[in-house]
Amino acid sequence: MLFVDPAGDDSGPGTQERPFATLERARAAAEAGTVVSLRAGVHRLTEPLRLSAADSGVVYQAHGYGTAEHESVVISGGRPVTGWRRDDDGVHRAEVPGLATRQLYVSGRRAARAAITLDHRLTRTETGYVTDDPAPASWQGEVEFVYRGAYPWSEARCPVARISGDDRSATVTMAQPAFGWASRLYHSIISWDGPGAGESNGADAPTSAENSPAFLTEGSFALAGGVLHYLPLPGEDLGEVVAPVLETLLHAVDVHDVSFLGITFADATWLRPSAPEGFLHYHGNGYYDGGLLQTVTFAEGQGQVTVPGDPATMPGNVIFESASRVTLEDCRFTRMGGVALEFRGEGADNVVRDSVVDDVSGGGVVIGSGALRHRIENTHVHHIGRDYHGSPAILLSGTRDTVLSHNQVNDVPHAGIVVYEGRGAQVLDNLVHDTMQVLADGGGIYVSGSQGLSRDTGALIRGNVVRDTITPYNFGLYTDYGAAWVTVEGNVVHRADAPVVLNVSPPLEHVTFAGNFWDADPGQAPEGVTLSGNTTLPQQAFDDDPGVAAIVAGAGIRPTPSTARGR
User: Fold this and answer.
1) From the record, what ranges are coiled-coil (predicted)?
2) What is the pTM of this model?
3) Under a CB-based contact definition with an 8 Å cutoff, are residues 366 and 417 in contact?
4) Contact at 8 Å (CB) between 210 and 144?
């Protein structure tokens, strides 16, 4: 066994009496079969921890894991910020030359990025905006415009290049290529009568602006010109302020039979949205990064939207690539700036269990194309998408035989669990609530594309409780965009805009809804959809129905020693 202690010494032997100081030193010394025991404290990384096939067969665990002496261990990519001075305006400032971050944590609390609502009269031009309001000319710093609802399910971010003006007007010049891309991407035409009809462009109307000291309110920060500006909450102590600086905490490639037990991963950022390319979100964790744009027509030709031909995806702060038989148990992923945890490449049999993913700027957990027989079980994913509101809590894309069971997902700005095209996904006995809190056109559980070649190889959505799906135009359990070979049985879906949807474009094929309980009649089944033995109950009857009670009792996290500790 090897030992690592933040107060240790890398020149020592790595024993309990003389532990190493860094994870990198322990990695270099470990061999297959080694247990690396991490002592209590914050293990700060100055560069990502990288594992390769040669690092396989090693267990990294908190000291005392599995016992009452389990120590609290944090692997952090953050940098403490000190040297604050309070100016006469009450703002605290710290010189941070070279610091690049998009998040700040004060005593463990996520500080808001300083922002204002854009209710100015902005007119879009080829290079940005003009306004007869002179106020923008006074905004200093690296300002960023946010476009909430660029599409109803999308939220974009574009940096401002410069602002000029006088006492009568202001001209906002946007960064390129982000602004030009956004003007081409967020273009739609709706030809039916009613709300939203006509031609529109999501770049016409930015909804808010961020990251100027002029926008500071209590508890918020701005980073401008190498200076952090922070306006504390009343009575707040600035003794512990951390700025995430690493974009990757751990990147493991081609490893196998590796375990991380009882460890917290924390304090990472993701800087791409600050680049001239911005962050042009499309759907899920996907965004436009240049290249081909396509026009998608729907609703029998009455609507069309522009979409990326080959979207890029938000990266993980903890990444396992082409890895197999990795176990993450009783771990926490918190204060992350991108996707908290990502499995990419052709790995197999990786497991996340009894863990927590929370306070994440982007997505919670992503399992990507090529993954085989991965499992996420008994894990709580909540308060994700804090900065990037289109991000789902759990996303499967191109996986085979993935199982999501007995998890809890809540407090999510868009969809909770997303299953894109793949084969054999099983979404079983999960509790999903308080999703769709910010954006529209999504669901607590969202499934799209072909899910197999037959009922036996298709997706199974069973035993889940989906409730409190909040913003308008959502579906508690949403089968969308040509979903095929999906069985939806024995679920409870209520308190959504609508429990399910049956008519979508492209149409559903080989989709069965059987034995579900919901609080609104979904209507007649079109060709390709089978309804069997479903029960529509009034809302007030849900608590008393024995069929509902049995499903509710079996859904969500099951008690374990780690969940009893509040992990």
Assistant:
1) none
2) 0.97
3) no
4) yes
